[in-house]
Every structure is written in structure tokens, then in C-alpha cells.
Amino acid sequence: MGAIKKLPTFDPKSGELFVVIETPKGSRNKYAFNENLGLFELRRVLPRGMLFPFDFGFVPATEAEDGDPLDVLMLLEDSAPQGCLIRARAIGIIEARQREAKGDWERNDRLLAVAAQAKLHSDLRSLKELNPRVLDEIEAFFHEYNKMDGKEFEPIKRAGPNAAMDLVSKAEERKRSGKKAA
Question: DSSP letters of 83-104?
């Protein structure tokens, strides 16, 4: 698992975005990569009937405004196993803010990507091409997911692939420079 720490943000051959899956689609268990241990660890168990709607992972060599690697929801026909490396293209973001119980708000955007190998979503290039109901359901999932822990999740806006790549670039630079978000 030490190799995950060494991964670049983009595949040097294809230029596609690298995504590491932490939590497979359909899982009640939320996992997170522990960089210090080089292992995936169980962070929480969702209640019965609540499942991750898509594979959930992160973009390596990035740091989002919340201090964690940039979060990604991966559109792919079937779930990928934990630790799977997927080459993908970003199709947009759900810009959002989140706060701990009675804490300060902080940005916690969700990047949406399509696996390069996907068949069902192979023509999808932008959030505008995705059924808005899917985005509503993703936002509702994260609202309820956070609410269970006494946190708040508030979507701010939805943006397309250019904004997504800008977010990736900023997160890559933040990781490289070691500067924390303002």
C-alpha cells in the first residue's frame, strides 16, 4: 500500500485522472486510506438501508480545502474493490460546505468522475449530461450521511468539467506546496 502514497494525480501516459477507491458502491461500511499506516481502515458503519450510491475514493497527491485528499464519486457500472486504481475523467463537481456540530463551515467539494473503462457512461463529458435526479440523490445522501454524525452538509452549486479540473489543479498545488487552505 506504500505505492498509493507515491501515485501522481494524473496517469503520465494517458493524462487521465488517477482515483483510488476507498469505499465500494453499495457498501454500508465507510473506509478511508490511512496514509501513516499505509492501510485502509473502517471509519463507520451506515444504518441498514443506507448505502454508498457510487464508488467513493480520492485523487492521489492532492489536498482539498478540508485537509484530506480530494473526494471523488466514480461513475462505473459495477463496484470496484477497495484500493483499486481507476483512470478517469472529471465531469464536474458538487461544490459544498460542511461543518462539525456547532463548528465552523469548511469547504468539502465532491468531484464526479467517469471511469475510462465505463461503458454505460462512456459518452458522459459533463454534469449537464447527467440526469439531475442523480445529482439530487447524491446531495441527499451526503446530507443524511453527515446528519447522522451531527454534522451539516450544504451543497453550494454544481459545476462542469472545467471547474472540476481547476479544483484538481488547486488541490494538487496545495499538496505540493504544503500550504493549508485559507
Answer: T-EEEEEEEEEEEEEEE-TT--
Predicted TM-score of the model (pTM): 0.94
CATH label of the domain that carries residue 151: 3.90.80.10
Q: Tens digits of per-residue pLDDT, 34-54?
A: 999 999 999 999 999 999 999
**For residue 86, how many C-alpha atoms fall within 13 Å in the half-sphere facing its CB?**
31
Look-up of cell digits 471509519: 43
Which neighbouring-strand residues pair with 74?
55, 113
Distance CA 10, CA 95 (A): 22
Domain annotation covers residue 177: no
Backbone φ and ψ for 3, nearest 5 degrees, come out as -65, -30
Residue with cell 468522475: 113
> How many C-alpha atoms does 8 have within 13 Å on its Cβ side?
9
Count of CB atoms situated within 10 Å of the CB of 130: 19
Q: What angle do CA 37, 39, 42 make, to 5 degrees?
A: 110
